[in-house]
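To fix ideas at the outset, we first show an illustrative case, written as a sequence plus integers encoding its fold:
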Amino acid sequence: DKDSIFPLDGVVRLHHQVRHIYALHNAQDKLGLHITEGPHKDTQDLRVHAFSWFNRWLKDDRSLIERTATKQFEPEQLRVFETLPDDQKNTDIHETFTQEADAPTVPKNATEWTVMRDKWMTGLREKVFRGWPSDQVAGSLDVKPVQQAVHDGVRLTQYEFTSQGPVRLPLYVMHKDGLKDAELVVLNVLDDAGWRKFLSMARGGFAKPLHNEAQPQVDAEAWQSQRDMLHNHKWVMAYAPPRGVGPTAWNPDERKQVQHRRRFMLLGQTLDGMRTWDARRAVQAVRRVDDVKDAALWLQGERGAAGIALYASLFEPEVKRLDLWHLPTSHRDGPIFLNVLRVLDVPAALAMAAERSQVRVYDSADANAWSFVSETAKALKWDDKQFVLRRTEGGGQ
């Protein structure tokens, strides 16, 4: 009754709803609710309740429980194997609990491709990202500048925008001071490592505006390279840390992080799923920034954030190009979305992105991991610029 993870009122509410289902099957007597005092812990009282349940339903025995739940064995005494055998299934048995989508075959023509693509997009909307808020729930973007500064001819402006309801997120925009009619805006979706990398670069010129953030070592070389690029081109660099990254980071304790990810799933979504929504809203927000509304828009990310940028691009028609660094080759390595492998895996999503946006994948993995994309592009006679795989030797951008 004092469970901090599953509060009692929610348990009672669920029991009330499930009881209706049992009643429809004339099985009201087969559902009960046991409440004991205590936190989220396997207490003695709970064990006695469990013994009673097992005896009643598995042994047809309603006698009194006379033996207390004393500890019978030490964990070492319950060990079956010193080392797991080679044919063990323990580590991946969960992958057999549901049927995954078949690996796609390269389409023979545009008609076959259209059927495949539309089926995947329907699956993403209905099974993977169904937990995204509606436009009415998300509300207005309400993009507002928070602060700005100019250093060495470069202007940094921090905006805030509404991703959904009460979730306000930052957007950092950097360009040459006095820039008019920008030709290109590159929106970077950041993970934790990307956020630290951005701070290391940006604090080379803007330590004071960013003084409230973490203080990584300044990367003066990266700042100088950024400054020179912005001076020489009519480009805009934008940076979007989604919820839980950077200024909106939660308690870094790993146990707390697990609890956050679990709670998103209990609400019918994943943290990466909502970060993909955040990336979509960041794309829309950057279009509200003066002087970049008509510029070509590129989207890029690294590691798991590359996957988030990839899926965001499937729902935002204005993304002209994707630059994806070290994109996971399968969702087994991220990003984590509900039901996604029942619909498709990363190569199929990448192929859909390559049809609508130019895609650059920077990867040290085996090129065969992306063969479905390259072969589909060849079979459908897409322009050679639609999908380009560039080999890297590990590391980042």
